[in-house]
Amino acid sequence: MTWFKVDDTAHAHPKLLKAGNAALGLWVRAGAYAAQHLTEGVIPGVVAQLYGTAPQARKLVASGLWHASGHDCTRCTQPPAGDYVMHDFLIYNPSRARVEDDRAAAAERQKRAREKAAEQRNQERNPFDSSANRPRIDDEPWAGNHEPPANQIEFPDDIAGQSGLSQRDGMEPSRSPRPDPTRPAVPPTEVQQASYGSTPAVPPNCRPLRDALTAAGVVVEWSLAEVDWFRLEAIVQRTAVPALVDHAREQWRRARSRPRSVRYFLPGWTALPPVPAGGPTAPGADVIPLDAARPSRVQRAADLFRAAAHDDPQENAQ
Predict the structure, then answer these.
(1) Least enclosed by CB within 10 Å: which of 108, 260, 307, 318?
(2) Backbone angle region of 278, left / alpha / beta, with phi > 0 → left and psi within -120 to 50 → alpha
(3) Distance CA 231, CA 234 (A)
């Protein structure tokens, strides 16, 4: 976009006062046209007739603001016949060549700005692939860039500290030693020891239950909290061990995944009814069959006869 420049003292200039306001409107519109189309001040006759009248154009020529074809002003170009040229247009406004050069330079600046913006976007997506960052990464003074190739290979065992025991291993055994592949595997019941107060073992009252479960094939961990040990001791004292084993085997069979700890059976054991020592422990063993509990007709008749004979005093006297 170009501009048609008007001096800030033009409102009191003698030429503008002489032309009058109506002709001055034609002068401003024609000047904007010349700036937009880069005519360097030349106003075609058709444009003058479109924006104004012939008397207004003559007033502009008479006041010296415009020149008609064949004028004698040495600072202004000669317009074609029927056209006009604005006086001193190139003094206050740029030429066509200058405007075109400025536009080309602005287009080049915009092109470089777009390329730089695109490069920055690519750098944000993958900063390590940017050519602008690659020299900085290569020149970074870290130890890996200055080590010889011989130092970047695998260290020997004597340098890496793998040839013998460390100083700490020599003074005291490690708190978390590595497993020894030469030792045989230990059953889970021997590895897991319970924490019952200050005694890291299964309490004596619970050992028969542990042994019975293990013999029945229910192998679980026996690591419980102190309160759970008290609870389990109370269950063992209240319920016989065979009943607990039968209940655990049933839960073991119905479980979706194999139970890992004896804690899994505690809720079910707590809900079991008390079973005295020596009582039936199998499921349903303490239930009397219906046929065995109901007396037969003959037995009922005999019982009624004996009861009637016992209650009749005359029969007793005879």
Answers:
(1) 318
(2) left
(3) 5
CB 225 within 8 A of CB 195: yes
Distance CA 166, CA 148 (A): 29
Nearest of 208, 214, 258, 249 to residue 232 by alpha carbon: 208
| Tokens coding 282 | 């199998």
Domain ranges of the chain: 10-94, 99-129, 188-281
Cα distance between residue 313 and residue 318, in whole Å: 9
- When pLDDT is cut at 50, 70 and 90, the band that residue 275 belongs to is confident
- With tokens 């970074």, the residue in question is 140
Helices within the chain (DSSP H only): 14-19, 21-37, 45-51, 54-63, 89-92, 96-125, 134-138, 143-146, 157-160, 167-171, 188-191, 207-215, 226-238, 241-254, 266-271, 290-293, 297-311, 313-317
**pLDDT (tens digit per residue) in 184-218:** 554 444 434 444 444 447 888 888 989 998 888 88
pTM of the model: 0.38
Q: In this structure, which long-range contacts are made by residues 185-191, counting pairs with CB atoms below 8 Å and at least 24 apart in sequence?
A: 187/219, 188/219, 188/220, 188/221, 189/214, 189/219, 189/222
Annotate 166-217 with DSSP letters as a single string: -HHHHHS--SSPPP-TTSPPPPHHHH----BTTB-S--GGGHHHHHHHHHTT
